[in-house]
Amino acid sequence: MTEKLQLHITGMDCADCALKLEKGVANVAGVEACQVNFTTAKMEVVTNGADETQIVKRIQSLGYNIAPPNEVYQPRTRRQQLADLLRQPRNTFTLIGAAFIGAAFILEGLLPAGGQGSGGAGENFLFNSPAPLPLLAPALFLIGGLFGLYFPARAGWAAIRSGQGLDMNVLMCLAAVGAFAIGEYGEAATVIVLFSLGEALEGYTMERARDSIRSLTQLAPAEAIVLQPCIDCQGCRGRELPDGSGPYQSGPCPWCGLHEERVPVGRLAVGDRILVKPSERIPMDGQVVSGQSAVNQAPITGESVPVEKAPGAEVFAGTINGDGVLEIEVTRLAADNTLSRLIHLVEEAQSQKTPTQRFVDKFARIYTPLVVAGAGLMAVLPPLFFGQPFFDTPTGHGWLYRALTMLVIACPCALVIATPVAVVSAIAAAARRGVLIKGGAYLEALGQVKVVAFDKTGTLTQGRPELVSLACIDRCCVEARQHDLMATCDHCDDMLALAAAVERYSTHPLARAVTAAAETRALPALAATGVKTLPGQGVQGHVGDRLVTIGSHTLLHDDDACLREFCGLVGKAEAHGQTTILVRENEALRGYLAVSDPPRHSSQATVGVLKKTGVTHTVMLTGDNPTVAAAIGHQLDVDEVRAGLMPADKVSAIRELMAEHGDTVAMVGDGVNDAPALAAATVGIAMGAGGTAQALETADVALMADDLTQLPAAIRLGRRAVRTIRFNIWFALIIKAIFLLTAFFGVATLWMAVFADMGASLLVTLNGMRLLRQNDR
């Protein structure tokens, strides 16, 4: 029977560790597949009869450990993180080794030149006889080196046994042993200790990056105050029931009402009532039942201004209550709330490799064997064919030493870690600001966006259309509307009631505006039958014996029936950005309805900011008529407007934009009605995804708040991430190239090479982590 096993691995400090674990565990009997997410330190194993203890033993034999399965993440200070680092056995051994090596260097400094102890101030300084001093320093180097070598040698041997080949532990051990063999005791010991120290610091910085995601789990409290009815109340037993049916004995107490009980959120069920007091975090997704308060939603949606919540409003787990007391009915379980989905999707996103990362991984798999082979040839060919020295000489390093230096440079760690650390930091920074980027590939694509296409309704506009004018075909009514757009007449009310009857079954925003207007006017609710949608044209249905058709002016215009003044009113409304709907009863035109969906206050500013961030072309895609679309587009300063589009037409428009501008096109919509267009774009961006599971699933990037201003910040973050990744890769490559050349010419030493290699790894890690501090300026 196939089962999935999930483990949290500790001790991973580079992407090479994840690859080693995957290959090592995959070789255990009964394991069908193994995948390790380096950035989140999680392993998923697909087993078919495998012994879990054997999997654990294999992981431990490779030099790693497993965190307890139910361990709850607790935020740690930097001091606590450093203390945890020092408690790890590998780091303890490294520090002991460093102490011995430090003592050896001090001792060497006390010896006279040549280390013979004869003459000079150093003679008999520590011992009566100077003879042991020259032997003591190498011994200390050897002891320090052995302490430093223990864990790398064990991990390297495990890698060889499991078919990993030459990983960085093996290369470092070969270099250190080779240096000991040719008498370079100080360099050999220093190399291995510097390597282990670098690994420890790299692990520390990666844990800090991982903590940025784990800290999201702390946004929602672990407990909630649940309101429970008093059951089997002992204090009220025997009292006469209010309905006079006898004394109270058991069941819900009719006098005590609800009482507060603090329980773990895992025990809450849908429908439970919870109480949230002022300044407390909301523990569960739910709907406000009573109370009113301003809720700070920034931890989830990134909104800077608190949002007023009243009965009926939706609230998210992890958001912060203001000054009021809220009673909330739970609508989602803890494992399925918005915060849990966000964390799950972020962790999934971090496991997705970018195109750059996949290229670097392939390059690293070729680079290391090539450099190792080059080191072997460099050690043998010059002495064999050109009479060059194999060992060191007073004039310089021999070719064996140079080859050992190249072994150190063969480690691709800095190159491999250059991309994932930037990706995990950028995705974490975005998530903490209410933007979910669902993978490194989308992060890179976001940073290269040159064209942004917007859906109109609900994206550039507020998405809450209202009926602003109407007129029936009657000449007197038309003339009256020229002075008062919302003047009423019996014919207009009858037309609106007919339209509302047919539109009542539609979910389109324009249909909701029509039905809302009919309700506001308290018009009779007529029943419609046989309602059907006319794709791209309108809707049609029967109200009694009348066939009612609702559609655009282009569809229902009648040269004989349409008065010039009537068409002028329609045209005037459309020129002001209002969408017009004509109503026909049987074959007779009844009149028009004009609906306005005003632009968001932030739309024009957002379009302007996008152009400043490097977006060269903005497009509005809409199913509205060209006149209305052009008016809105002009108002928002959009570069291009494409109107009258069906959903399939929007997909075609996106493909045309990609053919013209390349794979640099982003599509912004609501993630529900625009799903095909979002999927067709290089990057699909959904707005207001906080409460919409479908938007979270369909979009490549989700803006959790219904706020367009998050878009430029997300693109700026993507651009900065791309720049960081490119810098990291080029920096690592240049460092490698410099030390390959200096090693070949005998300039670089072993300790210089390992210092450069581990230093480069640390620098690219720290540079990538700078994205965690990304601001919106």
Characterise this structure.
There is one protein chain. This protein is of the alpha+beta class and 777 residues long. Among the domains are: 2-71, Alpha-Beta Plaits, CATH 3.30.70; 221-336, Calcium-transporting ATPase, cytoplasmic transduction domain A (Distorted Sandwich); 432-462 and 599-718, Rossmann fold (3-Layer(aba) Sandwich), CATH 3.40.50; 466-596, Calcium-transporting ATPase, cytoplasmic domain N, CATH 3.40.1110.10. 48% of the residues lie in helices and 17% in strands. The chain contains 26 helices and 25 strands. The strands form five sheets. The chain has a seven-stranded mixed β-sheet, sandwiched between helices. The radius of gyration is 36 Å and the shape is elongated.
Question: How do you describe this structure in short?
Answer:
By secondary structure, this protein is of the alpha+beta class. It contains 26 helices and 25 strands.
List keywords for this structure.
six-stranded antiparallel β-sheet, 777 residues, Calcium-transporting ATPase, cytoplasmic transduction domain A, Alpha-Beta Plaits, alpha+beta, Rossmann fold
Which secondary structure elements does this structure contain, and how are they paired or packed?
Layout: E1 2-10, H1 15-26, E2 31-37, E3 42-48, H2 52-61, E4 65-66, H3 78-87, H4 89-110, H5 133-161, H6 168-181, H7 185-214, E5 223-229, E6 258-264, E7 273-276, E8 286-290, E9 293-295, H8 298-301, E10 307-309, E11 314-315, E12 326-330, H9 338-351, H10 355-386, H11 399-409, H12 413-431, E13 435-437, H13 440-447, E14 451-455, H14 456-460, E15 466-472, H15 475-481, H16 490-503, H17 509-520, E16 529-534, E17 538-543, E18 546-551, H18 553-556, H19 564-575, E19 579-585, E20 588-596, H20 603-612, E21 617-621, H21 626-636, E22 640-642, H22 647-661, E23 665-669, H23 675-680, E24 683-687, H24 693-698, E25 701-703, H25 710-744, H26 750-769
Parallel strand pairs: 14-21, 14-23, 21-22, 23-24, 24-25
Antiparallel strand pairs: 1-3, 1-4, 2-3, 5-6, 5-7, 7-12, 8-11, 8-12, 9-10, 13-25, 15-20, 16-17, 17-18, 18-19, 19-20
